[in-house]
Design brief:
Shape: globular
Largest sheet: 2 strands, antiparallel
Radius of gyration: 21 Å
Helix content: 55-70%
Number of strands: 2
Strand order of the largest sheet: 1-2
Order of helices and strands: HHHHHHHHHEEHH
Low-confidence stretches: 1-19
Number of helices: 11
Mean pLDDT: 82
């Protein structure tokens, strides 16, 4: 058998398609979307992005907007870094990543100022702090620099969704129990208050965000014992 016959030709790489023609939503690719929602959650398992979980979860609306913003930034940044991964000198890779993330954050911030100014004003500096979010930089460094565009896109969406899921859950309980509202609309009827119910003001304080996240971590590890660290 000749050398030409024994060596199969490699298929050219096409944008968003792996060289081995792996299905777009193969089991491995689906795991990039689903794992961060549970067993590899950025907040409850990797313990990243805790600051925003404390700061912007008093109300549900800013938590949702922040989640969407982080998803847009992570998806776009992962794709860009993946496209440039073979061109970025190793010495300046962190600088390049920061420039890409900062550019995406500025774009998102300007969009919010144009179409949701009240929310943008409420989030204030926290949108800008996406630049230094450990989750964003961590996925660029750990995944996008070593994987193709499609996988990097899914990884960005998955980790942002896992991050946003925790933010929304925490904000849901803090706003509901702390003020009796959801998205600024009163959902606990006046009849309940007339029976003696009182809003729990502690839920509006930052420590309760950490306690709520802690309860979620406890429930998660109770269900999946493999997440418990061994001494």
């Amino acid at each position: 058998m000749s050398k030409e016959q024994s060596t199969p030709e490699k298929e050219p790489t096409v944008l968003f398609v792996a060289e081995e023609k792996e299905p777009l939503f193969s089991k491995k690719n689906r795991a990039l979307l689903t794992d961060p929602m549970d067993d590899n959650n950025p907040i409850t398992v990797q313990v990243l992005g805790i600051c925003s979980a404390l700061a912007i979860t008093v109300q549900l609306k800013p938590a949702i907007v922040m989640s969407i913003s982080v998803m847009a930034v992570m998806a776009a940044s992962n794709v860009i870094i993946s496209l440039l991964r073979n061109l970025i000198p190793n010495r300046i890779r962190i600088i390049v990543q920061l420039v890409v993330v900062a550019s995406m954050v500025i774009l998102v911030d300007q969009i919010l100022r144009a179409f949701a100014y009240d929310v943008s004003k409420e989030l204030s500096i926290f949108i800008g702090l996406i630049i230094t979010n450990c989750i964003v930089m961590g996925r660029l460094e750990a995944f996008a620099l070593g994987n193709g565009v499609w996988k990097s896109f899914l990884d960005g969406i998955g980790n942002a969704a896992g991050y946003g899921f925790i933010l929304i859950v925490v904000a849901f309980f803090r706003e509901l129990l702390g003020s009796g509202k959801l998205l600024g609309i009163q959902v606990i009827p006046d009849a309940i208050y007339e029976m003696g119910y009182v809003n729990n003001g502690l839920m509006l304080l930052s420590p309760m965000a950490l306690i709520t996240v802690g309860i979620f971590i406890w429930l998660q590890r109770s269900r999946n014992r493999d997440l418990i660290e061994k001494n």
